[in-house]
Specification:
167 residues, 7% strand, Lysozyme, 4 strands, 7 helices, mainly alpha
């Protein structure tokens, strides 16, 4: 086997916001040109799940939303790098970034997932993804499907996202 970056774990600084992550997160979030509240009690979102500065009258375009998503993911990668201290495969980073985009970097960094990850319990960290299937204390089927996709990506089973993310 050729020794290439794809075949070994690397520090977060050496990894990138991949096209797979950008497209996968966009698919997982879904797109809306106008502000919506995805679920009762949820924050207003626009574009591909953006919540920053969104008001009920906010509007956007697909191009602007992709740029916003990429910038947001870059910021989250920097935040995650402060709490993840072990090397990752690109696909592991993709899974954790999609997860952190959904739950927030603070929740990600305080999670048991990161504790397991930082002890190099990679499979255990991936398994933690499947536990985050509730919204406001209630099981959510759409979240469960998303966590399954993230788990499969994290384990390297789904390094190319081709499944329809809609529940």
């Amino acid at each position: 086997m050729i020794d290439s970056p794809i075949n070994k774990r690397q520090t977060l600084g050496a990894l990138v916001i991949s096209a797979s992550l950008l497209v996968g997160t966009a698919i997982n979030e879904g797109y809306t040109s106008r502000a919506v509240q995805p679920l009762p009690g949820d924050k207003l979102t626009i574009g591909f799940g953006n919540t920053a500065g969104v008001t009920k009258n906010s509007v956007t375009t697909p191009v602007r939303s992709l740029i916003t998503l990429e910038n947001d993911l870059e910021g989250r990668k920097a935040a995650i790098a402060k709490c993840v201290h072990v090397p990752l495969y690109q696909y592991e980073l993709d899974a954790y970034m999609d997860f952190a985009y959904n739950v927030g970097t603070s929740a990600f960094c305080k999670s048991t997932l990161v504790i397991r990850l930082n002890t190099q319990n990679y499979a255990g960290a991936c398994n933690e993804l499947k536990l985050w299937t509730q919204f406001h204390g209630k099981y959510n089927a759409a979240l469960a499907k998303r966590r399954d996709r993230e788990y499969n990506t994290c384990m390297g089973f789904d390094t190319i996202r081709t499944t329809n993310a809609n529940p």
